[in-house]
UniProtKB/TrEMBL annotation, chain A:
It is found in: Cell inner membrane. GO terms for biological process: peptide transport; transmembrane transport. It comes from Bradyrhizobium retamae. Gene3D superfamilies: P-loop containing nucleotide triphosphate hydrolases. This is Peptide ABC transporter ATP-binding protein. One of its GO terms (cellular component) is plasma membrane.
Length: 333, 365
C-alpha cells in the first residue's frame, strides 16, 4: 500500500487573552491509500483541530499552525497557496462533519449543492452533474433521488442529511475522506447504517478514511489503525488489535476499563479514570496524564515521554512505564 | 526498561495500580444479584397505567385549529418498585423524556394514570402535588443549561430546600450544602463558585447534589451521563450507584447507551414510537431479547473488541423511525421489521407476558 498522507510534528495553537491553548502539540501519523485510520480520544483533546488543520480550516486568528508538515501525495499542504488548498479541499480530500445541518446550505436545494461542487471542480455540464447527483444519492441509500434533489435540507432527517454529506464527499472522487464524529448525533441503528455505508463505499472505491470518534466500539469495528489522543498529543498508536488487546499506555488501558461492556459479564463496579482532563492552556512539564495516572513514577512529573516503538514494531506508546501497563493488561485478561 | 529507577513509594503505587486493575471478583457481583432479588419483592412505588400524552399540532394564526396530534406517549404501562432502577431506552423522539415529564407533572397527560405511593398524580391538586414533588426529583442531560449561570453553586443546591421548606434555617442549609457536595465527590469550597467555573462532570455532580438536597425517594435521570466524557461517565455511574445503595433510592434511568443501561439497571423497558415494546429483567433482556426492535437495537451497538466485531455479522435494521404525528397502523414497527407478516400492518400487537416477568408486544413471536 502506498502512502497517501504523512503528518509530521504538527502543532496548532490558539492564541487568546487567557493564554496559549496547545490544542495540537506535535502529532505525527501516516495514512495509506484505502486505509481506515481512527483518531480516538475524549472531548477537547484536539481531534477536530487536527482534522481541520489538515485542510487548513482552523480560524486564524485565534488559531495558527505553528509547526510541522502535512504531506499529501507529494505536496506539503502547509506550503500551498490559498487557491491551491481550496482545490485540494473540494477534490482530493473531503470532509464529513458531526452536524450536517451546519455544513449544508439551508437555502439551496440538495441537488444544487451537489451539482455546484461538481460543476466547479470537475468541469461538468449541468445535465451531467444532475445525472451524477442522482446516481450518488442512490448510492448512499436515498430512495426516489430525482424528487429528493429538489428538496431542501430541512426536509431531511438527521440520518438522511448525513447520507447527503457522504454523497457530497464522494462527488469529486476524493482519495481521502475525513469524518469528524459523523454519527455522534444519530441513533444507534442509523449510526450503524451510516458507518456500514461508509465502510462499503470506501472499500469499493479505494478511498482512505480518517474517522474521528470517542466511541471505542466504532473504532474496534471499522479502523485498521488507531491513534489515541490525549491533551493535544498522540499517546498510543497501533493496529486495532494492538490497541484493544495489548494497550501500552495507562490512558488507553483506563479508557477500555472504564466503559461497561456488552460483550463481557456484567461487572459489580466500574473502574473510572480519576480526575479530569487537563486544561490545554496550562500544561506543565512532564507527562500530561501524570495527575491521573496510577502507574506514574518520579520522572513522569518532570519529563515528557516520547512516542516510541514497542518492541521495534509499528505499535507506538508515549509512556515511561509502557511495559508495566502491558503486564497489567496481560495479568487481568 | 526504564533507565531511571523509581523511588520505593512511587514503585508501590505502580504495583497497586496493577493490583487494582485485576477484574473485580464475582463475590461483588453475587452481592449485587442478591440486592436485585430483594428489589423484585419490594412494593411498587410508581405505577403507570395506559399513560397517553398526545400533543396537539396547531395551525393558523387567527383561526388556529388542531390539524394533527403527536402521539409522543401512546398508552404505556410500567411499574417501578421501591429501590429499583428501571432503564428506559429507545431511539430519539420515542417518548422517553415525555414520559418523565408526565411523572414530574411538567406535562398534563391526555390519558391514563400515574400512581406514586398509591396516589394518582394526574388528578392531584397543586397543593398536594407540591408536597409530593419533593419526593420526586430529576437530573437532566445537559448540566450546563440546567444550572442557572448567575447563581453560586451553594445557592443552586439550596434552592429546592427553600422551595420545599425542608431546611428553614440558613445555617442548616449551608451545612447541608457542604454535606451534599462532599457526598457527591466535590470540595465544599465549590459552594462559592459559579457553574461556568466547573467542568461538565463537576456540573453533573452539582445537579445530583441539588436533586438529593430535599431527600427524594425517586429520581428521574434523563440522559444524565450522555453529555459526559467516557472517563467521567464511569465516575458518575459509580456515584449514582453509591447513592442508590446508601439512601435506598429508586431511579427511572432514561438513556440511549445500552451498555450503560445494562450495567446500572435492574429491569429495562424498550420504547418505540410512544409504546413500550419489550420489558424484562436486565439479564433476560440482554441475554434473550425477543422483540425484533430490541434485537435490532442490540445488534447495532459495536463492542470495543476488534476481533469480535470483525467476526460478527451486522444485521442492520433498515429505515428510520417514522413521525409520531402519523405512526404506522397495526404494529408501529412493521415498516422496518424483518419478521413482519401481512397481519402486522393491521393488528396492533398485545403486550403479553411471554415468560415470567418478560413482556413483549409482538404478535408473531
Ligand atoms: N410540547 C410538545 N409539542 C409537540 N410535540 C412534542 C412536544 N414535546 C415532545 N414532542 C414530541 O414528542 C415525541 C417524543 O419526544 P421526547 O422528547 O419524549 O423523546 P425522547 O424519547 O426523550 O427523545 P430523545 O432521545 O431525543 O431525548 C417527539 O416526536 C417530540 O418531537
Ligand atoms: N477557536 C478556538 N479558540 C480557542 N480554543 C479552541 C478553539 N477551537 C478549539 N479550541 C481548543 O482546542 C482544544 C481541542 O479542541 P478540539 O480539537 O475541538 O477537541 P475534540 O478532540 O473534542 O475534537 C480544546 O481545548 C478547545 O477548547
Ligand atoms: S509516562 Fe508516567 S505518568 Fe505518563 S502515562 Fe506513563 S506512567 Fe503515567
Ligand atoms: S408484530 Fe409484526 S411487525 Fe410488529 S414486531 Fe412483531 S413481527 Fe414485527
Ligand atoms: Mg470535536
Ligand atoms: Mg429525551
Amino acid at each position: 500500500m502506498s502512502r497517501l498522507l504523512k503528518i509530521d510534528s504538527l502543532q496548532t495553537h490558539f492564541f487568546s487573552a487567557a493564554g496559549v491553548v496547545k490544542a495540537v502539540d506535535g502529532i505525527s501519523f501516516d495514512v495509506n491509500q484505502g486505509e481506515t485510520m481512527a483518531i480516538v480520544g475524549e472531548s477537547g483533546c484536539g481531534k477536530s483541530v487536527s482534522a481541520l488543520s489538515i485542510l487548513r480550516l482552523v480560524a486564524d486568528p485565534p488559531g495558527r499552525i505553528i509547526g510541522g508538515s502535512i504531506r499529501f501525495q507529494d505536496r506539503d499542504l502547509l506550503k500551498l497557496s490559498d487557491e491551491e488548498i481550496r482545490e485540494v479541499r473540494g477534490k482530493d480530500i473531503a470532509m464529513v462533519f458531526q452536524e450536517p445541518m451546519t455544513s449544508l446550505n439551508p437555502v439551496l436545494t440538495i441537488g444544487r449543492q451537489l451539482t455546484e461542487t461538481m460543476e466547479q471542480h470537475l468541469d461538468m455540464t449541468r445535465g451531467q452533474a444532475v445525472a451524477r447527483a442522482i446516481e450518488l444519492l442512490g448510492m448512499v441509500g436515498i430512495s426516489d433521488p430525482e424528487r429528493r434533489l429538489r428538496q431542501y435540507p430541512h426536509h431531511f432527517s438527521g440520518g438522511m442529511r448525513q447520507r447527503v454529506m457522504i454523497a457530497m464527499a464522494l462527488c469529486c472522487e476524493p482519495k481521502l475522506i475525513i469524518a469528524d464524529e459523523p454519527t455522534t448525533a444519530l441513533d444507534v441503528t442509523v449510526q450503524a447504517q451510516i458507518l456500514e455505508l461508509m465502510k462499503d463505499l470506501t472499500q469499493r472505491l479505494g478511498v482512505a478514511l480518517i474517522i474521528i470518534t470517542h466511541n471505542l466500539g466504532i473504532v474496534a469495528r471499522y479502523a485498521d489503525r488507531v491513534n489515541v489522543m490525549y491533551a493535544g498529543r498522540i499517546i498510543e498508536s497501533g493496529t486495532a488489535h494492538d490497541i484493544y488487546h495489548h494497550p501500552h499506555h495507562p490512558y488507553t488501558l483506563a479508557l477500555l476499563r472504564s466503559v461497561p461492556r456488552m460483550d463481557q459479564p456484567r461487572r459489580a463496579r466500574l473502574d473510572p479514570v480519576q480526575g479530569q482532563p487537563p486544561d490545554l492552556s496550562r500544561l506543565g512539564v512532564g507527562c500530561s496524564f501524570q495527575p491521573r495516572c496510577g502507574f506514574a513514577i518520579a520522572r513522569c512529573a518532570s519529563q515528557s515521554p516520547p512516542l516510541e516503538r514497542i518492541d521495534g514494531g509499528d505499535h507506538l506508546a508515549a509512556c515511561f512505564e509502557a511495559h508495566s501497563v502491558a503486564e497489567s493488561m496481560a495479568r487481568s485478561s | 526498561m526504564t533507565p531511571m529507577e523509581p523511588t520505593g513509594a512511587v514503585r508501590q503505587s505502580a504495583e497497586a495500580a496493577v493490583q487494582a486493575s485485576i477484574v473485580v471478583p464475582d463475590v461483588a457481583l453475587e452481592h449485587r444479584r442478591q440486592s436485585e432479588r430483594r428489589v423484585a419483592l419490594a412494593p411498587e412505588l410508581v405505577t403507570i397505567r395506559n399513560l397517553k400524552m398526545h400533543f396537539p399540532v396547531i395551525e393558523g394564526a387567527l383561526f388556529s385549529k388542531e390539524v394533527a396530534r403527536v402521539k409522543a406517549v401512546d398508552g404505556i404501562n410500567l411499574t417501578i418498585r421501591k429501590g429499583e432502577t428501571l432503564g428506559l431506552v429507545g431511539e430519539s423522539g420515542c417518548g422517553k423524556t415525555t414520559t418523565g415529564r408526565c411523572i414530574l407533572r411538567l406535562e398534563h397527560p391526555t390519558g391514563g394514570e400515574i400512581l406514586f405511593d398509591g396516589k394518582n398524580l394526574v388528578d392531584l391538586d397543586q397543593k398536594s402535588m407540591r408536597a409530593l414533588r419533593q419526593k420526586i426529583q430529576v437530573i437532566f442531560q445537559d448540566p450546563y443549561s440546567s444550572l442557572n449561570p448567575r447563581m453560586k453553586i451553594g445557592e443552586i443546591i439550596s434552592e429546592p430546600m427553600k422551595v420545599h421548606g425542608t431546611e428553614p434555617n440558613k445555617a442548616a442549609r449551608d451545612a447541608r450544602v457542604a454535606e451534599l457536595l462532599r457526598l457527591c465527590g466535590l470540595d465544599p469550597k465549590f459552594a462559592d463558585r459559579y457553574p461556568h467555573e466547573m467542568s461538565g462532570g463537576q456540573r453533573q455532580r452539582v445537579g445530583i447534589a441539588r436533586a438529593l438536597s430535599v431527600r427524594p425517594e425517586f429520581i428521574i435521570c434523563d440522559e444524565a451521563i450522555s453529555a459526559l466524557d467516557v472517563s467521567i461517565q464511569a465516575q458518575i455511574i459509580n456515584l449514582l450507584e453509591d447513592l442508590r445503595d446508601q439512601f435506598g433510592l429508586t431511579y427511572l434511568f432514561i438513556a440511549h447507551d445500552l451498555s450503560v443501561v445494562r450495567h446500572l439497571c435492574h429491569r429495562v423497558a424498550v420504547m418505540y414510537l410512544g409504546k413500550i415494546v419489550e420489558l424484562a429483567d436486565c439479564d433476560e433482556l440482554y441475554g434473550n431479547p425477543l422483540h425484533p426492535y430490541t434485537q435490532a437495537l442490540l445488534a447495532a451497538v459495536p463492542v470495543p473488541d476488534p476481533d469480535l466485531e470483525r467476526a460478527r455479522a451486522h444485521r442492520i435494521v433498515k429505515g428510520e423511525v417514522p413521525s409520531p404525528m402519523n405512526p404506522p397502523r397495526g404494529c408501529v414497527f412493521h415498516p422496518r421489521c424483518p419478521l413482519a407478516v401481512d397481519s402486522c400492518a393491521k393488528i396492533v400487537p398485545e403486550f403479553r407476558e411471554l415468560r415470567p416477568g418478560h413482556w413483549v408486544a409482538c404478535s408473531v413471536i
